[in-house]
Design brief:
With 115 residues, the protein is mainly beta. The protein is built from no helices and eleven strands. The strands form three sheets. The protein has a five-stranded antiparallel sheet, with no helix packed on it. Strands 1-3-8-7 form a four-stranded antiparallel sheet, with no helix packed on it.
């Protein structure tokens, strides 16, 4: 049974940084295309950072140059380093494979960013 557990969310001020973690069990992240998604209130869930083929990464324009996705294969964990946070980054953040698998969605820690 696959389980993805996100952690590291919390209230931050605009301009601050935060790092999210996603620990996986029942699936090997190193052989999967994995990404971070987020969903703000009243908006659809969106993919914002992901690993493509091999070790390549890519980002949505809204977070490019501010967010960094990385992974530790030994820990089967994916991270999202978020710098220069803005109020519009306020959302629940999730990890999942690409394309996303509905039963893999975790709790999604909230990241409220105050101005």
């Amino acid at each position: 049974q696959v389980q993805l557990v996100e952690s590291g969310g919390g209230l931050v001020q605009a301009g601050e940084s935060l790092r999210l973690s996603c620990a996986a069990s029942g699936i090997i992240f190193s052989i999967k295309s994995v990404g971070w998604y987020r969903q703000a209130p009243g908006k659809p869930r969106e993919l914002i950072a992901w690993f493509g083929t091999g070790t390549s990464t890519d980002y949505a324009d809204s977070v490019r140059a501010r967010f960094t996705i990385s992974r530790d294969n030994a820990k089967n964990t994916v991270y999202l380093q978020m710098n220069s946070l803005k109020p519009e980054d306020s959302a629940a953040y999730y990890c999942n494979v690409l394309p996303s698998t509905p039963r893999y969605w975790g709790q999604g820690p909230q990241v409220p960013v105050s101005s």
